[in-house]
Automatic annotation (TrEMBL):
Gene3D superfamilies, per the entry: LytTr DNA-binding domain
Species for this entry: Paenibacillus illinoisensis
Name this polypeptide is given: HTH LytTR-type domain-containing protein
Amino acid sequence: MDQIIVLRREGKKIHDEAEWLDVDEVNFCTRERIGREYKVVIHTDKGEYIYSNSNDAFFALMGQRNGMIMTDKGMLGNIYKMESVDYEDGKVYFNEEENEYITISTPKKNIVKEYIAKLLKK
């Protein structure tokens, strides 16, 4: 089932916390000026949603999924897809051959170590 990231709208209030919406629940969409820009308003039987293109909302929502962890500002990785971790250089490699990695900030090193250890024990 296809899903999109949305923000719930209640009247004029738009919530900050993103959520998944099944595309099959969409009745229709409109374009509406909200603040200074136009947004897509998604109408469903459960209420109205605003299509979310907020980076912060995206990272917060994805960070709730099992295996996903914020390793640095603007860096989110799926630990189940990693090839290796270099804690000294602060990198999580997803393809060592192609040098594809995300960085681990110094304050997050212990959190990342604990999270990876916990996932690998399962």
